[in-house]
Amino acid sequence: MPDHPWNSPAQSWRAEAGHTSYPVVPVNDDTFWLQKADIGESDFLHIEALLEESLKDWYEQNRMIDKVCHSAWFLLNHQRKYIGGVGLLSGQELLIQQSIKDRQQSEAAATSSAEPSGVITCPLYTRTKGTLFVLLGCISSADHPVSANDLEMLGMHYRSLFYKRFEYTFVADMLSSQTVIEREAQRRTVLFHIIQRMYDKFEVDAIITEMFAIVDQMYPLVQFELLVSQGAQNRNPRVKPLVMQSSADDMCVRTFSTGEVSVAVHPGTDGNSDKMEAALPLMGKQGIYGVFHIMADYPLEEEDLELLMIIAEAAGRTFENARLYEQSQMLNEDLRLINNITHRLNQSLKLEEIFQFAVGELLKVFKAEHVIVLYLNPKTDRFEIVSGNVPALDGGSVDKNEGYTGLIYRNKEPIIMSDYCSVPGTESIFMRETGSCSMIASPLMSSGEVNGAIYLGHPQSHYFSYDNFKLLQVITTHIGLSVSNAALHSEVQRMASRDALTGLYQRRYLDDSISNYQNATYSGSLLMVDIDKFKVVNDTYGHQVGDEILKQVSRIIQRLIRDGDIAARWGGEELAVYFPQVDKSRAYHIAERIRETISEETDPKVTVSGGVADWNWKDKDVSVESLFYRADMALYQAKHNGRNQIRMDAEMRG
User: Which of 305, 290, 176 lies closest to 234 in space, CA to CA?
Assistant: First the structure.
């Protein structure tokens, strides 16, 4: 028999948290937040439809009662304006309107009141603040009169049905949000595996086959074909030649010419839905190799098009990589050596490893004395020296507009210098520090832009040949592809592990990281942070301001923790920080500094409460769940004791 036969996620959570497993939620159970949810005055203008539906529910459940079925029932909003009714006869709505005019009384009226016209109303109040939000009214018949007490009891029943529907909207929103989050996480995971699968292929036919297998699996009702610019033989019937003599209005020709995505929606006929057609460029660094043509009997969503564009981009790069690989088989021994280098480069998705390997191979292939690799830092807008064998230049940087680096950046072309010692020309730190007379340099390209450069130097004049110059261009093309692969891989991993709103890590990443630390280290602390009265912030300023508050708090936390600490969005307005090999006393002081800074720097000003718990290798129960539970209980104590404070789990147990 299952542990939780009622199949309720909320009850499962309560059972795991140590509460009774009985499925009925007590009225005073503070862990079940839904029963505390309520409407505010700002919601009154938006709940009329919900009020009317609740009246229908109420009437359906009570229509067997004589006093109910023989009377007319109606609703007035908090401003005593007519909303709607059930069981009304002709002319009774006018009677209600006249009754409203005759009786202009305040919203703080008695529980029930009799009107001179025979119309009686019962005011109903919100369950937390007791604010008038609706009046249930009745026009009873002489044979079946409805008393004030009857109306009060029926009104309370109506109020409970209204809150039942109100809670349903929360549940529906939660399920919808969960579906969106799960779908987005699945999309990111799928995208990560797609790119991995495509970059595992090094033959054009294999890449094309893999690409069609991927899109057919994801979109079985959509038609795909690949139009290629070169007459390569392929047995797949969906690979066709791109006819450039077609009309200039042809979207595939236009996409191939401009490199831009083309999308067209064709209106449906005979009541059928609209059809969509799209052309995505199969583009690499060196050019456009074809067009990915998509035909759908229904309009694709924007995120689907974005995913297909990423697939096409990855396919274009792998397609280009494969083309270069096949061509390299027909070159001389040097190019076969480059093929081996390319293969090894593609085995790594870490920039540091790629750069270190490139330096070693370049020194061996060209028999150069000196080599450096520069990579553009987008934050400083300078080229940083990230690898090489020139100690004097380690950790240095170069302005992107100065010297030979500036020429490479502006012209996007390689440079060869045969006798710098005799004819210095442009000032070069690399040539001066290494004493080189010969130099060849080539840019690293990404999406048509220079994002790095490689310099090779030798003290002998006229040392590098023109063949070396051309060979370096081939090598840097492959290195550039590997760098792009690594950057794309890093971006996919970042998307899969980061929260889109705050930029913090997601909960799953935090769970896995803590588990790894508990297996590899001896201690650590966890801080759980919750923004105090965050619902009030949303109700007062709106959800956009609420999102901005979350961003502000997240930025403050990231600023005040160490590089090795892990900050994550736990859920909603709850955040968490794990401090590896930090005891709870030190974590408490960090948490206090975070709390104080948030109180001082947020706008609008908010405060936070926090709970700190730690673990060490001597504990009997070393687990992620135990650590989170103790930190969460400490957070509960901080909330319970007045908010805007940090509590440690030892205080709670004490």
Answer: 290
